[in-house]
Design goal:
This protein is mostly beta strands and about 325 residues long. Helices cover about 0% and strands about 60% of the residues. The chain has two domains: about 5-150, Immunoglobulin-like (Sandwich); about 160-305, Sandwich (Immunoglobulin-like), CATH 2.60.40. The protein has strands at about 5-10, 15, 20-30, 35-55, 65-85, 90-100, 110-115, 115-130, 140-150, 160-170, 180-185, 190, 195-205, 215-225, 235-240, 245, 255-260, 275-285, 295-305. The strands form four sheets. Strands 2, 4, 5, 7, 8 and 9 form a six-stranded mixed β-sheet that branches. Strands 12, 14, 15, 16, 18 and 19 form a six-stranded mixed β-sheet that branches. A four-stranded antiparallel β-sheet has the order 10-11-13-17, with no helix packed on it. It starts with a strand and ends in a 14-residue tail after the last strand. The model has no long low-confidence stretch (mean pLDDT about 90). It comes from Arctia plantaginis (Wood tiger moth).
Length: about 325
């Protein structure tokens, strides 16, 4: 029989940790017989890993080009015993108490294919106890317990109204007058709380001889992966249940519109990592009949609690 171990956490409300929180608890372990250790260490670890696998160009060999990057967010050790120590058989309790840094990315996991790439990315945090034993043919024994961390955002966008716009020039036959479709969008606040609402006022001016088929809005999630020695890989995914559609706008019409988009409670901007970031845009598409190209306007938003103003009832993602 070997060492048996149980790591018990004194968990915060909702079992979610935030930057600056204390991670504490008791580790209980049992030795079935006297054992000698070089060192017993408890630790708090936080790491990020990104692996980008490029699909094989030669289908016969099936080879993949794999590139990876790692980063460390927290690495705190506490030595329980140091130097060769004989520990009698029995049950033992070890208290631990660590403090998370103030700047961290949230816990994260992503596994998906993006074009010719296969992406694996994770950010994880855990408490660990390690038993180091002497001798060439003995191995250290590790036990760990993962914790879930949710971080706030440091806003890069503005919290007051911002105006965005897009204009498209269309060819008007038998006329010297230019034909335009103009879209103006005013977002009231680009910083959205968890489960909050995006409010945008639009002004669509169809000063052309081409009717607008429809206008669609949706929230889009944008992942950016950056592995060392490789260009950035981006993945865009529509957020379910955020879409809205407005019907036809005829020629010569100035149409005011407004949308209130409810953001799902499990969506949040991800910052503070060099290998991964998660951003959001409200994408507005003005659909035109063939052969005209559609008009697309992306309005960036940041979703999440602002650092230092984080509530305790943040959901897991």
């Amino acid at each position: 029989m070997g060492i048996s171990c149980q790591i018990n956490l004194f968990k915060p409300p909702n079992s979610v940790y935030q930057p600056g929180d204390v991670v504490s608890g008791i580790i209980k372990y049992v030795l079935p017989e006297q054992m000698e250790f070089d060192k017993i260490v408890t630790s708090l670890k936080g790491t990020g890993l990104l692996e980008v696998r490029v699909s094989a160009q030669n289908i016969h060999t099936g080879d993949e080009n794999v590139q990876s990057s790692n980063e460390t967010y927290v690495d705190i050790d506490h030595v329980v015993t140091n130097g060769k120590t004989k520990v009698p058989a029995g049950s033992y309790d070890v208290n631990f108490n660590f403090t998370l840094p103030q700047i961290l990315p949230s816990s994260f996991l992503y596994q998906n294919s993006v074009k010719q790439y296969r992406i694996y990315c994770r950010v994880k945090y855990y408490v660990r106890i390690k038993f180091e034993r002497p001798g060439w043919f003995t191995f250290s024994k590790h036990f760990r317990k993962e914790i879930y961390v949710v971080s706030g955002i440091t806003p890069k966008l503005l919290m007051h109204p911002i105006i965005y716009g897009k204009s498209k020039k269309l060819l008007r036959f038998f006329s010297r007058k230019n034909a335009f479709i103009n879209m103006k969008a005013t977002i009231q606040n680009s910083i959205i709380p968890i489960g909050g609402q995006v409010h945008i006022d639009y002004e669509i001016k169809n000063d052309s001889n081409v009717p607008i088929s429809c206008i669609e809005t949706k929230l889009v999630e944008i992942y950016t992966f950056k592995v060392q020695g490789h260009s950035k890989v981006k993945a865009c995914e529509d957020v379910p249940n955020t879409g809205a559609k407005i019907g036809r706008i005829d020629c010569g019409i100035l149409k005011p519109l407004a949308i209130d988009m409810n953001v799902p409670i499990d969506r949040a901007t991800l910052q503070n990592s060099k290998v991964i970031k998660r951003d959001y845009v409200v994408r507005t598409k003005v659909t035109l009949p063939m052969p005209h190209r559609n008009i697309v306007l992306d309005i960036p938003v940041e979703i999440g609690p602002i650092n230092n103003f984080m509530p305790r009832n943040i959901p897991n993602r």
